[in-house]
């Protein structure tokens, strides 16, 4: 007994020190499946994000098969309900019990941040497909991002507004990471362009009551209200915006594309017409790659239109698949290395995972809500090419 233990310990030491005879031992057997663990808010107030990412990830697998480097690929989806403690526990279980090769998903910033230390400690690559606070990328050297950052999305509208007759603006954002990023970048760029931000309002992330804030904006009568709210929440704000008569008072609405999210845009009605936003993805993006994506997504998920969360999930799976293929099914540092630097044509347009920052570089479009074929879409009319995250200087 004692002898066996010490032998085993000796073997462990030999492996760590690299004294293994012959070829290096692979960390997996050829018969082991490659497990990809996605953690998403499939329930709770942000379930639409989970539903979109999951649908797109499953579409990617359906289109590209379940075998990589001769091994079976298993996609595991776990529901964290949008609660960080749950995300952390699920990540721990996926790494320790399921021995996933890579983690993905992460619907909101706090959920990504809660998982980052686990990715670092276990050397498990972690693909952030939805959350978008600039600083997430710094939380672990094992993070790769296929979503976007709020500074990236915000500069488009912040530069467009002062060139288009908007001089005085009030900002309204969700009071957490991405909202603070959006507010900071909007104020800086809009002011640089000659505009003036007269007030900056922050609403709680959970169950926001927009009424008192919008009343304040109505009284202040700026040229426009700039808004960031997480995906799925924009419709409630839009309803209140018109009910309180802000549109009639001549106050324009400008926003990041999170507010006119394709998942809910069509349900917003005429109130949304003419709203100008900037973002990295529109279901109306005019390219063959996007047409094929929207068609396949809608076919696999009748009644659903893919939004920017879906594209983050679809591209996230692309980065994982191509990374695994190049790394011959290995995880850890080897997979991280093959995920970095990937450049490809996404449904959103051309993208690159910057090898140095691990963050996504992508085009940012200026769009206007229009009725196309009886449905509301964000129609792109201008573009900033190959935008890096400006939040990192
Ligand atoms: C976040 C950013 C979440 C943008 C979002 O929707 C969004 C985040 C759920 O980083 O928490 O549209």
Global geometry:
globular
Low-confidence stretches: 1-23
Structure annotation, total helices = 11
Radius of gyration: 22 Å
Bound molecules: 4-hydroxy-3-methoxybenzoate
Task: Explain what the structure shows.
There is one protein chain. With 393 residues, this protein is of the alpha/beta class. The protein has helices spanning 2-17, 47-64, 84-96, 109-122, 150-163, 177-192, 211-220, 234-243, 288-300, 308-326, 332-339; strands at 34-40, 67-68, 71-79, 102-105, 126-128, 143-145, 168-174, 196-203, 224-228, 252-256, 276-279, 343-346, 349-353, 360-372, 375-387. Strands 7, 8, 9, 10, 11, 12, 13, 14 and 15 form a nine-stranded mixed sheet that branches. A six-stranded mixed sheet has the order 2-3-1-4-5-6, sandwiched between helices. Strand 14 (360-372) and strand 15 (375-387) form a beta hairpin. Helix 3 (84-96) packs parallel to helix 4 (109-122). The longest helix is centred in the last third of the chain and has 19 residues, at 308-326. It is globular, with a radius of gyration of 22 Å. Bound molecules: 4-hydroxy-3-methoxybenzoate. 4-hydroxy-3-methoxybenzoate binds at residues 46, 49, 107-109, 131-133, 177-178, 230-231, 258.
């Amino acid at each position: 007994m004692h002898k066996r233990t010490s032998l085993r310990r000796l073997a462990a030491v030999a492996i760590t020190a690299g004294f293994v005879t012959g070829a290096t031992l692979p960390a997996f057997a050829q018969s082991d499946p490659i497990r990809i663990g996605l953690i998403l808010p499939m329930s709770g107030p942000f379930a639409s994000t989970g539903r979109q990412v999951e649908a797109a990830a499953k579409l990617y697998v359906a289109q590209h098969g379940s075998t990589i480097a001769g091994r079976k690929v298993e996609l595991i989806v776990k529901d964290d309900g949008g609660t960080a403690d749950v995300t952390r526990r699920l990540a721990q279980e996926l790494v320790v019990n399921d021995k996933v090769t890579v983690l993905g998903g992460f619907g909101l910033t706090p959920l990504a941040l809660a998982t980052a230390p686990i990715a670092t400690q276990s050397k498990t690559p972690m693909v952030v497909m939805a959350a978008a606070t600039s600083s997430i990328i710094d939380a672990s050297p094992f993070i790769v991002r296929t979503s976007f950052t709020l500074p990236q999305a915000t500069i488009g509208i912040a530069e467009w507004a002062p060139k288009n007759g908007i001089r005085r603006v009030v900002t309204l954002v969700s009071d957490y990471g991405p909202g603070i990023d959006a507010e900071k970048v909007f104020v800086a760029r809009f002011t640089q362009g000659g505009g003036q931000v007269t007030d900056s309002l922050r609403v709680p992330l959970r169950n926001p009551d927009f009424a008192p804030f919008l009343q304040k904006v109505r009284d202040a009568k700026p040229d426009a209200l700039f808004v960031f709210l997480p995906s799925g929440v924009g419709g409630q704000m839009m309803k209140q915006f018109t009910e309180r008569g802000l549109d009639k008072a001549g106050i324009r609405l400008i926003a990041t594309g999170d507010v006119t999210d394709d998942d809910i845009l069509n349900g917003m009605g005429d109130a949304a017409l003419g709203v100008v936003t900037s973002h990295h993805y529109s279901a109306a993006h005019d390219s063959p790659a996007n047409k094929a994506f929207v068609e396949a997504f809608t076919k696999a998920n009748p009644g659903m239109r893919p939004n920017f969360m879906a594209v983050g999930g679809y591209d996230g799976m692309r980065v994982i698949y191509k990374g695994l293929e190049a790394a011959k099914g290995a995880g850890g540092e080897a997979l991280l290395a093959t995920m970095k630097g990937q450049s490809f044509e996404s449904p959103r347009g051309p993208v690159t995972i910057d090898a140095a920052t691990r963050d996504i570089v992508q085009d940012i479009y200026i769009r206007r809500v229009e009725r196309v074929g009886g449905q509301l879409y964000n129609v792109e009319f201008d573009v900033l090419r190959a935008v890096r995250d400006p939040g990192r200087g």
